[in-house]
Automatic annotation (TrEMBL):
Organism of this sequence: Kangiella koreensis (strain DSM 16069 / JCM 12317 / KCTC 12182 / SW-125)
Protein's UniProt keywords contain DNA-binding: yes
Name of the protein described by the UniProt record: Mercuric resistance operon regulatory protein
One of the protein's GO biological processes: response to mercury ion
Residues making up the signal peptide according to the UniProt record: none
Pfam families per UniProt: MerR_1
Keywords: Coiled coil, DNA-binding, Mercuric resistance, Mercury
Ranges where the HTH merR-type domain occurs: 1-69
Amino acid sequence: MLPIGKFAKAGGVGVETIRFYQRKGLLRIPKQEGGIRRYDDRDIRQLKFILKAKAAGFTLAEIKELIVLDSSNDRHKAYELATSRVSELDKKIAELQQARNALQKLATECRGSKTGPCPIIEAFDD
């Protein structure tokens, strides 16, 4: 049973992050015992789930839905959320790859050019 400071530290986040997740309904607010709220292993598991889902690109609303789906065992809906997230990540990866290629081209032009304006600066100066 951990007080909020140690609970936050166990999850690698700040106390305000814990409170934020509680306000969003992602983490429970334990009852006070002797004036202190205590968190258990179940809370640590929930926090780590939130952090991993967030790292996978899920929004907080989607994470909340996944938490509900976990308790209802609705694998089909969880699958739909995951495949939707994969699709969105694929789009983002394609956009980032396109931006990387464009910047790489500008960097190559900049290195090869000794006179005139820098192609990188010029490209962003529109």
